[in-house]
Known about the structure:
This protein is an all-alpha fold.
Amino acid sequence: MIGCSIGRALPTAQRDEWASRRAVFAKPGFAATYAVGVVWGLCRWSIGFLGAYVVADATDSARLVQLTGVLLWAPLLFAGAFGGAVSDRFSRRTLLLVQFGVLGPLTAGLGLLSLTGNLPLWVLYLYMVVAGFGWVVDMTARRTLVYELVGDDHIDDAMALEGLASAFGLMAGTLAGGALIGAVGAGGAYLAVAAAIAFAAYLLRSVPLTPKPSATAEEAPSLIAEMKAGFRLAGKTPTLASILGVTALVNFFHFAYFPIVPVIAQRVGASPFTTGLLAAATGAGMAIGAVVVLRGVVPRGIAYAGGAIGAFVFLIGFGAFDNYWLVFVSLLIASSFVGTFAATQGALVMTSVPPAMRGRAMGLLSMAIGVLPLGMIALGEVSEVLGAPTALVLSSLVGLVCTIGYLTFRPQALRIR
């Protein structure tokens, strides 16, 4: 009776929101596909954290540590179009199985090498590139598969839930990586990640095959032709061009701050624990932004473009303040804006193109995200000259001006309801 009373007491809007969430998870295959994404999110952020830790422990070189992030993100830039064309040509579930089938054993092998103390850095760097290709597959295959499972009516909720999962993976993945290193060392941590990848592959058993919207095998053009069609897509679709441009600017000028967090933490006298807490503020803020999108209180275009602008504004405080809690709050608020941006971009891209082009559109999105390593390199070099705080403030101001200017020239993203 208590449960019934509570249910009747809920406002109509809130009941509608819960009904919408239940409708998404009621779609056959979505829950399993979403679970795969949650597990993979944990794995990918753990992989990024472990790679940086191992190199920092072995070399004490900031540039070599930065290189792990560059190699992890670079495939998004250079292989996005190819991944999108492949995703539109083959079974998305099969591509995911291949991804896990390759990355799982490699991760286990890396763990064994680390346990024996015979892990060359060049092997680790090659592994980071392979893991980056796994990110391309997730972007172009699994997220497009989500669209096919939930359809137009529920894609906004589904992508907002994806944003929430990504934020959780960022928080839990980095924290789990640190905890595992403390408990079982880097080698044991890699073996744990390999086990999680195997679990993600197991979850794929419950994901149904979806019909392919593209041409039959006899009619299908070559992969090169499909990649060219993908590149032409942005020129023919002003809304897609508007979305991709904002994405590229945010990733180049904003997200490049990730490796700088320990430097800023040291500047404000943070302890190891509060340094970790500061790093977790990114994931916590993104989760807040994803919840805002799920509530549907802001039009999608405003959530996307406004999130990008707000992220730049508040990241200025992250670099400018010299008090820990002011720095923490600035990053938390900036990440909340990023959360609304990230939770809407996938849905906006896929709804802006025909069904047969969704994989290629997501490939273009991965390339826009893939400018991040270039931003990391640029921010690192400017930090060497001007210092990290000044470099962060400068990067945020330039990114803010460029984003506002781009939206003035390409305002279509702002107009999306």
